[in-house]
Structures are given as C-alpha cells and as structure tokens.
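The following block was generated as part of the benchmark described in Methods. Ligand: pyridoxal-5'-phosphate.
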Amino acid sequence: MPHRYTGLVEAYRNRLPISAEARAISLGEGNTPLIELDNLVRDVGFGGRILVKYEGLNPTGSFKDRGMTVAVTQAVDEGARAVICASTGNTSAAAAAYAARAGITALVVVPDGKIAAGKLAQAVMHGAVIVQIEGNFDAGMRLVKEVGETSPVTIVNSINPYRLQGQKTAAFEIVDALGAAPDYHCLPVGNAGNITAHWIGYTEAIGQGTPACAFCAGDCRAPHPAMTDRRPVMLGFQASGSAPFMRGGPVADPDTVATAIRIGDPQSWEPAHVVQKESGGWFDELSDEEILDTQAKLAEREGVFCEPASAASLAGALRDIKRGKIADGSTVVCTLTGHGLKDPEIAMRGALDHIVKVPAERGAIADLLAKKMA
Ligand SMILES: *Cc1c(COP(=O)(O)O)cnc(C)c1O
C-alpha cells in the first residue's frame, strides 16, 4: 500500500484539539529522526544511550513547525486572515511558511540585529511582513500581545496553546521509537514553551493530564490509551547570559550567541516550573563557549549539524553525565531544536582555519591526504 506521510495534524488528529473537519495546513512536519550518538557515547565512556531528536529536519528547519501547523490550522478554521508573532527567528520562519501555505498574511516582529541570516531569509522568501523594532525579543513580545488585543490577528507565539499541542507530538514520536519514555529528556530553554509541550506529551502518553496543559489543566477527562508507563526527568538548559530560570526572575539584557534562546522574560515561566517539579528535573546554564564546543563536536564526531541554541541540550547532558547527575546506564534524549544552516555566520567564523590553499596539482592533494591519514 502506498503511504504518503502528510504531517502532524493528520497523524495525531485524535490526540489534538482540532475539529475533525478542519483543513490541515501542513508541510509534512514531524516524523523527524531520533539519532543514536554512538561515537560521542564512546568518547565520554558513558554506559547508557544518548539519542538526539533532530528537529532541524522539519520543513522550515526547526521544531516551531510542529506548533505552527496546529496553530495555523486552528486559526484558519476559526476564520483568521492574518497571524502575528514576535520572534528571535525560527518562529517567524515557520509562521511565514505556514501562512503562505494557508494563503493568509504573516506579520513578524523581529529584534534589531542578532537574527540569524538563514531565518530572516526564510521570512523574506515566504512573503511575510517583516517589522524590525528597536528592542529585543521581550519588547517585541509585549508589543505583539498589545496588538493581539485590539486587532483582528491571531498570535502564533507559544502563548497560543495550540502551539504547545502541536509540539507535544515530539514526545509521542520518541515513545513510539523507543517503545517507552527515555530516562532523561534535555532541551534548550528560551520561552520554555517546548519543554512544557514535551511534558504535556509525555503525560498524555501515560494516559494522564498535567497542570502545565492549558487545555486540561491537569484534569484530563478524556485520557487516551497509555503508550508507556513512565515519564522522563526533564532537564532545561539556558545560556549563561540569558538564564532567567537560574536567576529566579526576568533578565533585562539577555545576551548569547545562541540567539534562539536569547530571551529574558520567558512566557511559560509557571508551566516550566510545574514541569521541573512533576518530573524531578532541573534547570542549568552553559557558557557560550561550552555551547559552541558541543555544536562543533556533534558536527565533527556524528555528522549532525544543529544551530547553537540546540547544542545547549547536548552540552548540558554531557556535563551532567560527567558529573554523575545523570545516572550511568540511562537512556538520554536531547532535542536538537534547529538546523545548523540557520546560522551560517556562526559556523563560518573559524572557517578560514579549515581551508587549505594549494596549487591545482595532483601531487599537492596527494601530500595533503598522506599527511591527514598518517
Ligand atoms: C524557539 C527555539 C528554542 C527555544 O524554545 P522555547 O520553547 O522558547 O523554550 C530553542 N532552540 C531553537 C532553535 C528555537 O528555535
């Protein structure tokens, strides 16, 4: 039987708060690979398993597509003609693409500077109205909330509960792939929508509800059959210059090379604390240097290229394994939230050191090869 995968809404419609008749606005998102890190596990001498959920392979190159397909499907079903978001880049790329697909307007509010080139290119190509403000993501978010209250436009940031409903499906896919929930699940944290969404997904996978879910608020009256009997410990990693969960409150001037998590005033502050408490997990922070080192190590040792923010999950996992906070023998899943090609400038910073100039002669290449293989 031929089978064409047609995206999350069709795959999980019975687990999503979307009407049976709503036309799915989809680009075939989801169903991303869960890649086992054999080389790195051997390098660090870990007796367990580390797998990365490579969300960079979604249609616009980040997990935001999971949330956007459901948010835009619902918005169009309700008659919306326009969507709006504040964004450090990936939300605007996804909003622009799904709005284009639906034939509606996307208005994206981006901070001045510090938006990765690939992400901005996407918003341009998909025909979004791009508004650059004098201010950072948090200022943009405040502005978008004000506009949403007075104008006929649907906000598609993660404060839109349909976003988290879409993103929870990553947990279903992981449980399906492993046959059970992992022991630990590590994510980079910006607004903390995604860590909250994963917890909603894992909780539904054991047939329950959680107060972190805006739809059931912990009182899920129509639980689905359990897919697994346990939930992971949830670990959330921030960049040191942008770590409100470590400081205990908003950070006024967040700064990090990991621009996707350069957020000082997280929108899912309370739900994320529910996740931490219910799962027995923790938050921690990493320096930009640790994040970039891990991004490079993952690319060189495993052939997997993620953007800087994504590497925070793996960097945190490797450090907690080394410190013994993650028990040896555990199964650890790290979400790689976005593709490395999103941010070519970061990748190219050290590029000149990697390029060897030689005359166009066979001997020069043969010498190089011999040196490399020695
Ligand atoms: C949006 C984003 C994050 C942060 O996710 P939150 O839900 O805001 O915590 C992390 N990494 C990438 C690549 C993102 O695009």
